[in-house]
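Collaborator request, handled under Task 6.
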Amino acid sequence: MENEDRIVILDHIKDICKRRCILPVVVIVIMVALLFIVPFGSLLNPKDVKGIFNVKSSDSFVDVSTGKMNYTGYDVKNGMGTEFSYYYALKNGKCAFALIPKDLVKASGKSLPEGSVKEEINNLEFKAKVIKPNGPYKKMISMFAKDLNWTDEGLNSISTGLVVSSANYHPYRYIFCLVVIILLILAAIVRLVVSIKRFKDPYLFPVCTYLSNEECHELMDEAQDELDSENYLQINATYITENYYIDLDTSGAFIIPLKDVIWVFRLGRRGIDIGKHSLTYTINFITRDGEVVKVPRKSSDEAMAIIKSIKATEYEIITGHSDEKMRMAAAIIRGHEEEKTETQPEEKTEE
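Structure tokens returned to the collaborator:
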């Protein structure tokens, strides 16, 4: 009968991969929904509309060519400092308003004040977003009604109830958002595919970042054998066997051969933990080849217990952080590099 308490590295990796599939799926669903909700197609290909009164409230973005329109006398600036002018048109007792870039309606003439616009425009074409009356529009209506000796209610009663606004047409922002959405979808798909592949074949999971897939495969089997021997020290989800550091935390899986490690120490970082500030620790493993493996999210006591347990193994590993220990580790790494250089066969040179 199989031992129910047996620690199985491959099963743990499968659980991790299943959990890692959740976020990519959520991201893909949300981003695809945004592609349908946000009218990117209408933005990239605005509806061609002849005449301001043919614009409908159901339209999102339009490329409109106006007939005759008159200047209201009011201008606004957007957040980038670009100026726009309000124009209106009358037809069959209805009044339509458009917010047009000042650059398109500048009046020419040396005697005119700087920034003057045309009192009347005809057959002007511009791109815009169709919006409902907003704050600046309502402010303009209030002042325009006073100029006409009318009331806000009276002017609103004959208006079309929408604004053809160039000030709200931001194609570059939408295109940037579209690019971000597409990149997020692609990144999520890649992460999902990788997680599914690793779920199907847990040996593909990078349990040791400085080793190849083949070496990781061998490492998992050897580490599993040592776990099955039940000769190990356990600190929460961390297991220190005779030859391996094995970390099977809920967020990852690490297996590090202790024979490769020359220095191990912890570093704290400030984090936020449900209403209170707390320090979490990352355990840093330095190998004789100068590789660094970081195991994050450990409490202070947990990190200290792990380092003490590693120190108690038969391997000569420097523990704790100081300038002196850093120099000691650097010297070991240099010595190992020199040793590798000396053992490499010299290249033959042709005479």
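The cover message to the collaborator said: "Helices lie at 9-37, 40-44, 135-147, 152-158, 171-200, 213-228, 300-311, 323-343. The radius of gyration is 34 Å. Please let us know whether this matches your experimental observations."
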